Amino acid sequence: MWSGQFEEEVTRLWLRWCDRDGQIILTGAERAEIERQGRETERQEKELERQRAERLTERLRQLGENPDEI
Questions:
Q1: Which candidate in 25, 29, 55, 70 could, as Cys together with 17 as Cys, close a disulfide (CB 3.0–4.6 Å)?
Q2: What's the rounded Cα separation, in Å, for the pair 64 and 55?
Q3: pLDDT at residue number 47
Q4: Three-state secondary structure readout of the chain
């Protein structure tokens, strides 16, 4: 038994499927949300890397180096 919201905006007691180890099996909506969060984290990491590369490029230019020739 599990208490929470599932496909409704009502909190109640639900019967949930579990594996042999007692781990709750995710619903399709829960799995989709975890995947969405993973994509968002990946997007944020790529953005941070892009910003880091821009800062490094700018710093090299300040030092008189051409980043395209390194």
A1: 25
A2: 14
A3: 98
A4: CEEEECCCCCEEEECCCECCCCCECCCHHHHHHHHHHHHHHHHHHHHHHHHHHHHHHHHHHHCCCCHHHC
Task: Read off the tokens for 45.
Answer: 């990491």
Backbone angles phi, psi at 3, to 5 degrees: -105, 130
Report the C-alpha gap between 35 and 7 in whole angstroms: 18
Q: How many CB atoms lie within 10 A of CB 17?
A: 10
How far from chain centre, in Å, is Cα 47?
13
Select the more confidently predicted residue: 48 or 2.
48
Q: 19: which 2 tokens? A: 């594996």
For the entire predicted model, the pTM comes to: 0.67
Distant-in-sequence, close-in-space partners of 61: CB < 8 Å, separation ≥ 6: 67
